[in-house]
Specification:
single chain; two-stranded antiparallel ribbon; two-stranded antiparallel sheet; 4 strands; globular
Length: 117
């Protein structure tokens, strides 16, 4: 009888561990903080590919990586008013965000999180 109990306990432990492992498969839900929007956003683990603060791929985010600024300015792609690449200035033209959102959707199969700014 004792061996059955140990087997049963082991089975329950294995099932519990499996449930915990499967429930954390890379996606997360962020809850709004007090005074924040009531909208919940679902994100995926993008492995650092996406800059959630600025809504562009991390490798292209001149707001996070100042070494990219000169290249954007050399190409004439710079918004002096908002101090960011014109092509990434969603303040001047919110429609520009659509291009980057489509890249995210193709890569991850869902809409990107809204940029913090």
């Amino acid at each position: 009888m004792r061996s059955i109990n140990r087997k049963t306990q082991g089975l329950f432990a294995l099932l519990a561990l499996s449930g915990l492992t499967l429930s954390g498969c890379g996606s997360s839900e962020s809850l709004p903080s007090e005074g924040a929007s009531e909208i919940l956003t679902t994100t995926v683990n993008d492995g650092g590919w996406w800059c959630p603060e600025h809504g562009v791929p991390e490798a292209e985010c001149a707001q996070c990586d100042s070494t990219l600024v000169a290249n954007f300015k050399d190409k004439g792609d710079w918004c002096e008013e908002h101090n960011r690449p014109e092509s990434q200035c969603f303040l001047c033209s919110p429609k520009r965000a659509e291009r980057f959102a489509k890249l995210y959707e193709v890569k991850f199969g869902q809409k990107p999180p809204k940029p913090a700014e």
